[in-house]
Amino acid sequence: MQKFKKITDQRVTLFLFFLCWFAYFMSYIGRLNYSSAMTAMIQESVLTKSEAGFISMVYFFTYGIGQLCNGILGDKFHPGKMIFTGLGVAAIANLLMGFTENFILMSLIWGINGYAQAMIWPPIIRIFAEMLEGSRKIQFCINIVSSQVVGTLGSYLIAAGVMWLIGWKAVFGAAALCLGAMAVIWLWGFKRVEKFSMEHGYLPDETVKNDTQRQKAQGKMSELLIGSGLIAVVFPVVIHGMLKDGVTTWVPTFITETYFTSPAFSILITTVLPIVNLTGAYAAQYVYRKCKKREYMAAIVFFAIATAALLGIWVGKSYSMVLTVVLFAMITASMMAVNTLFVNMLPLRFEKQERVSTVSGFLNSMAYLGTAVSTYTIGLMVENLGWNITIGSWVIFTMAALICCVIFRKKEF
Questions:
Q1: pLDDT tens sequence across 104-125
Q2: Would you tell me which CATH number, out of the four given (1.10.357.10, 3.40.1080.10, 1.10.3470.10, 1.20.1250.20), belongs to the domain 10-407?
Q3: pLDDT by residue (tens digit) across 46-62?
Q4: Which of 53, 197, 277, 312 is such that its CA lies 20 to 30 A from the CA of 324?
């Protein structure tokens, strides 16, 4: 895709936003369905806890690697085609997942799904950065967080309903249908946006650089990481990934085992998390402004909230199911705020270097590295050490991320 002049037509920008919104929304339907089905698969002895955690780890590992690779590719290739390919391959992977109970095949298929879904987010951020004006692209980068929230909620509700009516295998079939339909809609919709851009003079931009100029403007990745200070963000981003998705993956299992509820009920209870999570994105915007647009200063607030909430769960984890869910909601909402600060908004600072997709993909890959490691190790720790020690380790890591943010609190990008 050639670089666009900024689109100012409000109807077209809203159409583009909702097209991206639904694409990312559908990606959540086809990723969190595994978390929903996992509890039933463990209960039916299809998988052990460590095997279930391993498959989840494979997904997040390939998703993280994919974010890094596709982030770089997203600055070089047509983002619309990348998103279509990601949706299509993810649909096929979900379809295949419902036809096997073999641990090795499940790991392979779900790993492919992870890489395919990593082709969606970095190109979306690039599209926003290059096609929209300053205030609008920032607002869209914040508003699209709602697709994650609604997608999480939708995934849990669809999974709970389908699993109750048919069984866990049908959960993957339903996701495949949603992803396949969205791939077709995306192909049609983005072509309309490009056609409008060409007809109204937004494309091509006379300032487009040739490949040599673009490569020179981008510079080396190592220089970008060290020179800009991005390297210092890595640890807090990894820990936020551990909490945002890694811990969330195990919440239904934790509730089932601690309060002796059914898998379907624990999934239904967990739907409160994404509802509350949306407040984190807008809280991030508010705190970010109050902290004079310093990402680290804003992140301190949210890591402090998460640390306090984890301590509450650790001390009284079996006291009250309602209180436990509320505390988990505080943690995930806080990490959604950190995600908004570091993964959504921070990459926009690199538009002049033409590295928006690369930076977004890199930071997302670091987040999912934390997710990948935690989903597997949580399963192992719970099996061998129990929930008390496992939750205690979450407290230590979150506190370490908080200290890191305090150390770099005056850092400006």
A1: 999 999 999 999 999 998 889 8
A2: 1.20.1250.20
A3: 888 778 878 888 887 88
A4: 53
